[in-house]
Amino acid sequence: MAAIDEGRRPSGAEAPPGLRDGPLRVSQTAGALPVLRASGAVDLNGHDDWGRALRTAPLHDGELHLDLTDLAFIDMRGITVLVDVAQRLPEGARIVVHRPPPCFGRMMEVLWPGGVEAITVKGDAP
Amino acid sequence: MTAASGGAAADPFDHPALYYSGGQEYLDGTVPFIEGGLSAGEPVAVSVPGANLRLLREALGDSAERVLMLDMTEEGANPGRIIPGVLRAFADRHPDRRVRIIGEPIWPGRSEAEYPACAQHEALINLAFAGRDAAILCPYDVDGLDERALADSLATHPALVDRDGRRPSGEYDPERIVGEYNRPLEDRPRTALRRAVDRFTIDNARWFVTSYGRRAGLTATQLIDLEIAVTELLTNSIWHGGSTGMLQIWTEKDQLVCDISDAGHITDPLAGRRPVDEDRAYGRGLLLVNHVVDLLRTYTGKHGTTMRIHMRLPANG
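Structure tokens for the assembled complex are given below, as produced in the milestone run.
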């Protein structure tokens, strides 16, 4: 494998507009099935907001539905917060994670290889 | 040859090196250790390079089904992954039982880049398993390994086994090995791209490294792993290493290499090698990195810390 071709190096210091993950945005939808939607990235700039949103989101029939379709990235602490919130839910309640980014599955597989009882991952939108 | 049947009196943890020359000595040293464990009802795992795994499978016959058999060149390619991902992962599944493990993390094909992390790993097993009811037997190929590897094994194992029997090591000193191999890493090539990253630019750094990795030919799965590893290392730099990490990335031969330097000092030698439930956030990030990269190398001290990750480029990438 040759070194990266000089002319094809990422030249600028910044990602082109639209390619950055962007800041974390979390919103709670209303309707028959309340859903917590997150977009952008959960990293060290968004841990507090992420944790607060998860801890205060209402359960619907014992479930908290998270739509991560537009989430570009979540880091280890972001997943740890999610697992922590899930494990503190009342008996039988769970968090249903819809369409998480690929890094989510990879980190769960490494850090919680046996899965987390109170977290269910679904590939479809809520 | 008598393998690790008896441990030290005070500490139930037993960690002998087994010196072998050829397949027959390998089997003479390992099979009684495995069968002794099985007949005592102890869970047994074997993690050794593929050729030795095949040798053992054949020799064990039906008994092999009662042994967890892993290829160390896959499970333990990154030495930093072996304690959390192989040894403790197995031992912790049997918390109330004595376990036996054969672990062969150093084989003749190990590279110069990998070796220091291998030696440190062997030394750190003693710390990670102190007081645990376990036996870990580490085979060393005396024909294929160089003098350095054999000399270091005397310092990383409290007991030695060979065709003449078992004896204590007079040179046991694992802390010395951890310190000796905490060395400056090789210079980066002039082609390395370099940029400082802080909390305001961490998302841009993710884009930067994945763009670089994509151009270098990493697979989609490797790009995810690279993004995870770089984010966790930078996060540690920002929280614990003076708020900025200096990221540098390049390719060499068949590898993509990326390192992150900061002003922090890692004083916990087991950071990143404990199971997820036992480590704090710093170590948990390193644990994740250890799992997803092909090699993690560290140089740390009061002067600061450099963490260097290697990822193998696909053959036709």
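Confidence is low (pLDDT under 50) at residues 1-12 of chain A. The beta strands of chain A are 25-28, 35-42, 63-74, 94-98, 119-122. Further analysis is deferred to the final report.
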